[in-house]
Amino acid sequence: MFSEIIDALQVKNCEETPHAQFAVHEILEHRTCTLAVDGIGTITFPFTEKKIEALKKAAQPAKYGLKEKTLLDKTVRDTYEISANQLTVQFNDEALQSILSTMQRKMGLSEHARLTAHLHNLLVYEPGQFFKPHQDSEKLNNMIGTLVIVLPSAHIGGDLIVHHRQDKKILKSENIDFPELQCFAFYSDCQHEIKKVRQGYRVALTYNLVLKNNNDEQHHYQNNKLERALTNYFESSSDDADDAEPIELIYFLDHEYSEHSLRWNILKGNDHDVALAFRQAAKKLNLKAHLTLAEHHESWATDGDDDSPELQELIDDDTALSFWLDDNNQALPYQKHYIELDEVCCIKDMKEFTPFDEEHEGYMGNYGNTVDYWYRRAAIVLWKSEDQIAMNFNLNHEVAFADLLALTTSSGNEKVVCQIISKAKPFLHRSRHSSEEDNFSSYLKLAIYCKNKDLANFLLTPFKITLIKKNILEDFKKLEGTYGADWCVNLLKYWVSQQQKSYYSQHELEHIELLAAQAVRLNIHESIIYFLLSYQHNCFLENDQKETKSTPCNKKQNLTCRKKQAISLLTACFVISSSIDIAQQWITHLLSQNELYSILDIADIYFACEKIPSHFQPIMKTMHQHLKKHISDELAESLRDPNDWTITIPNGCNCEHCKIMKGFVRNKVEREKIWPLSEQYRDHVSSVISQLALPIDISVVKKGSPYRLVLQKTDRLYLDAKEQFEKLTKYMRQL
């Protein structure tokens, strides 16, 4: 898929750009440089042993950076350092600029840019000192590399070895009597090391190399082959579907960069020409071009240790793009964008790069032994200009959506809003940052504003019916006014159908009685209110069906909630006359569920329903008659005798120990049972009693073997019966 693009880039590089070097070596005459050190004065070349000793006294042991830390560890870096603020270094400007220009050309940097050197420090290596492989941090904006100027001082060893992917260069400075300055420059993404100095002293100035380049795009001609390749790529990858995601081309550059050095006009080596070719092609083909940092992470299973992990299997990997720049080097507020490596076009494979960080985790019981690697690349990302709106939502949904909502605060933007919604479809419902309720309110406002049934349907179908709450009914009324009651009912039906397909159960609406009353006050169409009541009725039926399968203990715990639901639905039905059938079905259900609703519970529900409309009186009369009959029957049995300790219990478990327990529970006179029983059976009997919510206290006397299980029927048995009898008597008088 990417071969045509790669061929177009390689042909141009081979024909017109000399091979860019990642490290170069030049010579500068020593008389072009003067050096003075605070406390020592001006130093002439070559160094004498006395001057070297003076430098060492003025210096400090050099530290090094590791991630966010600055460390002093002579097993990693062993050298002396004099900071830049203690140094006065002067060069013949013409000579230094000549050297920098030569290095700039050899390193493949733009000929229209200007390479400048900024003093960092002076380093003194004595015999045995070294610096292990490391990579320089980019300390300045537009920093692209490091310049090392080795000053005239006799030494053996101390080679500078520079690595770039699979290549390396050995830059030797050792000499017995060499009077000139040896200048080494290399890119900041190169790992490098200083080998041990075996004899003498290696003295070097280090500089940060910064590339200044305003704009050299006009000096580069177009790459026709690349233009054709990009045209073919975007045409062959396009999808005509209305909600198809935009096509992106992601091209990985050959060098590493940081936020300091990632700029179109100061890219390293061949990356510079490749980027210009892409930018010019993008302008001609109406594509949007972006620069971004890419971080790739791999996690491997390993058998090795920290020093030599032996990779076995790739467990996981991910690649993320961040720190985005537009084609004018302006930072964009885009978020981290995860991609798959097989979506990336590149000439240099990730395996050719050295990880900028790694971490080994040994065996930790259920996880480990693993090693993690992190790689840094930079990428050029292209997409069609017409997809810019969609990509804004993809890469910074919060800002893009806020801008879209802002358009709805004044009239006259309907056409623009519709266009944005249409273009942003693939990502409009992604990355919601606020609560689902707030999102629903926002999308509801959008749907009302755009006055387009198809777009309104697209905006609202991903939500759920349970988001219909009292506080959004005013907007829902506006939705009805815009698209009609039938359209709104169809939307509600769609939500319910999608909810039924999901793995989780239906959920009831909050405070249906308040919701229905508010809907009537707002003059929402009766068909919408009826649908909401019907939905709530079905939810409650489903809840009760599940409850019949639960334990008596759970039924008792949930009783208050069930009664509130029953009252709320009946009260809600009273607000519209057409819901009388729902109320009738609900009453029939309540009267038939003896396991869930006792006659006292039915009475509580009945008397909680106030202001019953006249047309609901007949169905409530059915409830009234049912109560009179069954309460009369209950009262006819008279109040429980205080000395009657019989507890009604279902059959349930018929194991040997439960049979003994049931015999005690059903016994009219036996109130306490002390029962030597092993722990296993004590736990079982106790669990059964708890699940049945019986008025029995359970304790264990930890004496003897086995311990004794003590079961004692509580006074609640009589007190609850007395309270129920008094309530029924009261309700009978009211009836």
Could you walk me through the main structural features you see in this protein, from its secondary elements to its overall organization?
The protein is an alpha+beta fold and 735 residues long. A hairpin with a 3-residue loop joins strand 2 (33-37) and strand 3. Helix 16 (559-573) runs antiparallel to helix 17, helix 16 (559-573) packs across helix 18 and helix 17 (580-592) runs parallel beside helix 19. The chain starts with a helix and ends with a helix. The model has no long low-confidence stretch (mean pLDDT 89).
Radius of gyration: 41 Å
The description of the largest β-sheet is: 8 strands, mixed
**Count of structural domains:** 4
- The counted number of beta strands is 30
Kindly name the structural category: alpha+beta
CATH architectural grouping of the largest domain: Sandwich
- According to CATH, the fold-level topology of the largest domain is Jelly Rolls
CATH class of the largest domain: Mainly Beta
Strand content: 15-25%
Helix content: 25-40%
Please mark out the parts with pLDDT under 50 across 5 or more consecutive residues, or reply none.
Answer: none
Average pLDDT number: 89
**SS field, number of helical segments:** 22
The span between the termini is 83 Å
Shape: elongated
